[in-house]
TrEMBL record:
Listed Pfam families: Glyco_hydro_8 (PF01270)
Highest rank taxon of the organism: Bacteria
Lineage: Bacteria, Bacillati, Actinomycetota, Actinomycetes, Streptosporangiales
Name this polypeptide is given: Glycosyl hydrolase family 8
UniProt source species: Nonomuraea typhae
Key word Hydrolase present: yes
Length: 389
């Protein structure tokens, strides 16, 4: 329906008094102005953020094309992101990643196909959340409940889609943001729970995964629900409280402290390992877009420490919180997020360029879903193409 332009009495009087015709109403925004085309850098980072040398936009586009060819499948009446190196062929984390990546790249057909898959797999506990795992036939398994990381990215991706293309994506995002707060945020600690299954009587109810501490997502959610400001601040306060010179966070915390021993996945649950490796990317992404002193300080601390290795090839595959290597590296999944943190390191240009050269020289296979997907999203931020809806 075309919106009718209403000329107010005041405007008519002003025109009569001046002897001039009333100014015409501003022209509506063109469709292209609604979105953020990849490579446009329409929403620039805060002042002082570094950039890698070379054609970073082109390198990300090339990496995206390879990633899409390797990990996007067409099954069960839609398309979805396959995760051959995860516990199940299709996981909520992967679909959330896929939505954010597709929205960032301006790939609406892929976005809508993944969203169709997401909406076809609701959690048994809250239908506005995503069942976290599906088998090769796209059937939800292992309880059909949710995992917080996938849900956070689904909601964020929907907000991005609303900015890119209009429509009802933002309304869908608002519904999911409310569901996340209801079912996946601990009412006392204000920290993210592991999923909607972690109810108050569950032993893991107060365990939180640091890779779910997506500060930039929470900041975007505040525009929908101001209560997310307190949730964001609770996570930032805890990030700042983790002791040590490295700035590294553990995979999991409980009662505000790194867990000890195996709590959910391995004996290294209290170390900087395969979950927490995403933290420099998440924290750094907020630092470059918001300039929040807490995020900037946390990212700089991590970057200053890891830069002492001198070479990406010397970055280990996991560390204790004091900085002792867990396994020999390098491993792209661990290297890539450090490049995001380096963006706010004042003297980090040479280090950033080394990291970028390493990342853009890497090849991946069809079983390297996790590393390649973390790397792609980190490269998107480093190239200057991350934005907050």
């Amino acid at each position: 329906m075309r919106r009718l332009t209403v000329i107010t009495v005041a405007a008519l009087l002003a025109a009569g008094c001046s002897g001039q015709a009333a100014a015409p109403p501003p022209a509506p925004k063109k469709a292209a102005e609604i979105g953020v085309p990849f490579g446009s850098h329409r929403l620039p980072y805060t002042q002082g953020v570094l950039r890698p040398k070379g054609d970073a936009d082109g390198q990300v586009r090339d990496f995206y094309a390879k990633w899409k060819a390797a990990f996007v499948t067409a099954k069960c009446g839609s398309r979805q992101v396959v995760s051959p190196d995860a516990d199940h062929p299709y996981v909520g984390e992967a679909q959330g990643y896929g939505l954010v990546i597709a929205a960032t790249m301006g790939d609406r057909p892929l976005f809508d196909d993944i969203l169709k898959y997401v909406e076809a797999h609701p959690s048994v506990n809250n239908p506005l959340l995503l069942a976290a795992e599906q088998d090769e036939n796209c059937k939800s398994v292992n309880g059909s409940d949710s995992a917080a990381d996938g849900d956070l990215d689904v909601a964020y991706g929907l907000l991005m889609a609303g900015r890119q293309w209009g429509g009802d994506y933002r309304d869908k995002a608002a519904e999911r943001i409310a569901a996340i707060k209801e079912s996946e945020v601990h009412p006392e600690t204000k920290l993210m729970k592991l999923g909607d299954w972690a109810t108050q009587d569950e032993p893991l109810a107060k365990v939180s995964r640091t890779s779910d501490w997506m500060i930039g997502h929470f900041r975007a959610f505040e525009k929908i629900d101001p209560e997310w400001a307190a949730i964001r601040q609770a996570h930032q306060k805890l990030i700042a409280s983790i002791p040590g010179e490295t700035g590294l966070l553990p995979d999991f915390v409980k009662d505000g402290k790194p867990v000890k021993g195996e709590v959910l996945e391995s004996e290294h649950d209290g170390d900087y390992n395969w979950n927490a490796l995403r933290d420099p990317w998440r924290i750094g992404a907020d630092a470059v877009t918001s300039g929040d002193p807490a995020s900037v300080a946390a990212a700089r601390k991590i970057s200053a420490w890891i830069a002492r290795t001198g070479s990406p090839e010397k970055i280990a595959a996991g560390y204790t919180l004091s900085g002792e290597p867990l396994e020999e590296g390098p491993e792209p999944a661990f290297v890539a997020p450090f490049a995001v943190a380096a963006l706010v390191q004042p003297d980090g240009q040479a280090w950033l360029d080394k990291l970028w050269t390493y990342l853009t020289s890497q090849e991946f296979g069809k079983k390297d879903y996790f590393a390649a997907t973390v790397q792609l999203q980190s490269m998107i931020v480093v190239s200057g193409n991350h934005w907050v809806p």
